[in-house]
Amino acid sequence: xxxxxxxxxxxxxxxxxxxxxxxxxxxxxxxxxxxxxxxxxxxxxxxxxxxxxxxxxxxxxxxxxxxxxxxxxxxxxxxxxxxxxxxxxxxxxxxx
Length: 96
Prior knowledge:
By secondary structure, this protein is an alpha+beta fold. It has one domain: GMP Synthetase, Chain A, domain 3 (2-Layer Sandwich). Helix content is 34%, strand content 21%. It is built from three helices and three strands, in the order H-E-E-H-E-H. The chain has a three-stranded mixed sheet. The radius of gyration is 12 Å and the shape is globular.
């Protein structure tokens, strides 16, 4: 079963495309939940609530892709908060 340390290790590879720094170094990861079924939910925010949507979407997709690559993970949900387009971005990221 995957643990939070493994998830954080993958999240350290997610780099804000505008700033060029990993989201973990900027303390943008708010919460990591791992269910008994190895479903992972990552809650995060961005540096500003009006960060360009293209960057917000790219970060969320990268979170989902990287955490999904961990052995044993059955599903990943990335939840963006405190952004002007959070609802739309969350729908796009988690639709697949």
